[in-house]
Amino acid sequence: MVQAVIRKTRVRKSSAIAAILAWAVGLALSLSFWPGIMIWDSARQYRQALSGHFDDWHPPLMEWIWRQFIALAPGPAPMLVLQLGIYGAAMGLLTYRTWRDGRGHQAVWLAATGLFPPTLLLMATITKDALTAAMLLAAFVLLGCARDNGDKLARAAGIACILTAACLRFNTFLAALPLLLLAMPSGWTGHRGRKALALAGATIVLLLAMPVTNRLLRAERSGVELSLVIFDLGGITAFSGSNAFPPMTVSDPIAVNHHCYLPERWDSYSWWVNPPCPIEFTAVRRAFAEQHINPEFFWLKAILVHPLAYASHRLGHWNIASHFLVRQPVERWIISATDPNEWGFRIAPNAANRAVAAATWALDRTPLGWPCWWLALSFGLVMLGRRLLQAEQMLALAGSALLYDLGYAVFSVAAELRYYCWPIMATLIATVMFVGQWRRTPAAHRPGRTHQALAAAPLLLVTLFGLGWRWLG
Questions:
Q1: Neighbours of 145 (CB within 10 A)
Q2: Which of 170, 216, 211, 219 is nearest to 60 (CA)?
Q3: C or N terminus of the chain, fewer CB within 10 Å?
């Protein structure tokens, strides 16, 4: 009896040490990219943070936060510390809670998820995607604490994290809704009507969070939403053979669009490409304004008139962005160095950050680097988790990753790994939680073999078709 207690104590101690080590090494490896990777987007945000004049092309809230840190330290370093601090604290609390509940081995694996190279690289990049992922993870952990012990302060803090994330990306509401189920009273989650009503109300609040915050920060309207509209109109024109753009002073817009349209990103219609496309952002925006056309209604009408062309465009883009049937990544899929900038900020290459970048590129050549693979995995977790006992938190996390990932089939306008920071991170953590929950669920209560096969089928098909496409090519 005494020996068993001693053995158990040693196991708990060793698991705690291993978990702390994995957690600390993960944060250290991301910090090896000091002072943080600045891409073109973050450079633009920093410029606005310096000036104090914001527009809404990128989240003004992030620029406002960045501006508060400039007096302490210029450059990307404060934002790197902020997003890694939130992420690290959330991961640490999740690991500790799991260890405290007597699941030492699972705690080690949870901490080890922070060693996944794409996560290390993305969390070292100063972008709204990394900050959004950190806030969503913090929300999940805090709402999980509130779910376990009824802590009202943790619930309020978790909801605040979700609202903050909703101010960083307009499509965050898709990731937030499953997490908000953890904030609902138990009497609501078991009642379909109340749950649906609460989720509908939450969707409205989440969609309003960004525009309200932008208004409070006096951010100038940039017309950023037109990037999606123009990209889709270009795709519809390319696949339908009919001009889907508003009337403009462009001769033969169908032929012009044929040279401008790229299925991987909308940027060919932007003002920063050289040479510029005659169907350019400013020209389309002016056409909408001068003819008093509502861009969103015009966009929806084009989709309804040409549904097959729209579907072809969207599926083609999704295929590239999700890395399904592709043979090589698009330009700037993985970014591991700071883009040239007027302030001279850069990353000093070292053994640690070179290893992380090389490992990320190596994983990109395997299914572990494909967003479509993580999408299929999150789908399987949701399907199987619904039949496990006490799997609400794992389901919320996997459901958040699944919905957010699926949203990019409609809302994506470019193909970059950073957009999938949250789905990959959340699915990886949910997988560790699922394995632990599976082991604790009696065999009689686990999903049957048929259900297991149906849940695993998408992952298997994505793996086989994706690898086959690459090998045969």
A1: 20
A2: 219
A3: N
